[in-house]
Write a structure and sequence with these properties.
Blueprint lengths: L4 E5 L2 H13 L13 E4 L2 E6 L1 H10 L4 E5 H6 L7 E3 L5 E8 L14 E4 L2 H11 L4 E4 L5 H5 L5 E6 L3 H5 L2 E10 L1 E5 L4 H17 L1 E9 L3 H7 L7 E5 L2 E12 H13 L3 E6 L6
Parallel strand pairs: 1-3, 1-4, 7-8, 7-9
Antiparallel strand pairs: 2-3, 4-11, 5-11, 6-9, 6-10, 12-14, 12-15, 13-14
Length: 279
């Protein structure tokens, strides 16, 4: 059986975070060094590609899975494929125009030209609204195209909004929230296992494995302090009848919020570790 091909971003912030996640999930990434490199690992084959090319290849069935963002999933009509949201590379897909053009909503763009990297998604957006706008596919920076009056509006990603403000553009509508996702063409055992490992690695990063000592009579108060604890592990301490060791897993944010409360309970020897995987 031919190992499935998995497209990994070849550049940018999405590539960096994807490689970090693969490493956390136990996949060695040293063989992926940019420049559209290819690597084979047991039952998987990796190829580095531009995200836009990866989405097109996934839609055409040329690769079996890809790390791509929500906007490209919509552009290539991949929304029905199994996917795993990854929680990074977050942005918003917005419709924007010049801040002095008097336009307020998308309806004000009837008869206008709208520049975008996402022609199919944009055409569907206006068609669903019954707006007769002309969608123009352009590459490069779109904000300057709109600011110069070459296009009346743009549909593009907004991360911080700095570029829009610099070019004196304002958002008419947020079309959708976007983030990186692991998308695969089919539920096959090897790709299901990869999704499971990625999910376990992400869950681990959001949690901490906590070990501490506390008086035995304070254990119930500890459970009330962290109501999500079904049953923490309680271990005896050699030569101590008054203290026990307590082990539990809790969200990282919750731990920091409750750290002072733990000390108020008299907890000592508090150690918090990042688990490698949580299933």
């Amino acid at each position: 059986m031919t190992p499935p091909w998995i497209a990994v971003p070849s550049r940018g912030r999405l590539r960096t975070r994807t490689l970090e996640l693969l490493g956390d999930a136990g996949y060695p990434t040293s063989m992926l060094h940019g420049s559209e490199s290819i690597a084979r690992l047991d039952s998987l084959s990796f190829i580095e590609m531009r995200s836009r090319d990866a989405a097109a290849a996934l839609a055409a069935g040329q690769v079996d899975a890809a790390f791509i963002a929500t906007d490209l999933i919509a552009e290539h009509d991949l929304r029905d494929l199994p996917s795993l949201p990854l929680g990074f590379a977050r942005s918003e897909l917005v419709l924007a125009s010049r801040d002095d053009d008097g336009r307020i909503t998308a309806d004000d763009l009837a008869g206008c030209a709208v520049a975008t990297h996402l022609p199919h998604l944009s055409t569907s957006f206006f068609a669903d609204r019954g707006i007769d706008a002309t969608v123009v596919e352009l590459g490069g920076s779109l904000e300057g195209v709109c600011a110069a009056g070459i296009a009346d509006a743009i549909i593009d990603l907004r991360e911080t909004g700095t570029s829009l403000a610099r070019n004196r553009l304002r958002v008419l509508e947020v079309i959708t929230a976007c983030e990186a996702q692991f998308v695969r063409r089919a539920d096959t055992p090897v790709l299901d296992d990869m999704a499971l490992r990625l999910g376990a690695a992400m869950a681990a990063g959001r949690h901490r494995y906590v070990m501490l000592h506390v008086e035995r009579e304070q254990v119930d108060k500890l459970r009330h302090l962290f109501p999500g604890l079904a049953a923490p592990t309680i271990l005896p301490l050699a030569g101590r009848d008054d203290l026990v060791a307590v082990h539990f897993v809790v969200g990282a944010d919750e731990l920091w919020e409750r750290l002072g409360d733990l000390r108020s309970l008299g907890a000592t020897g508090i150690v918090a570790l990042t688990p490698q995987a949580i299933l």
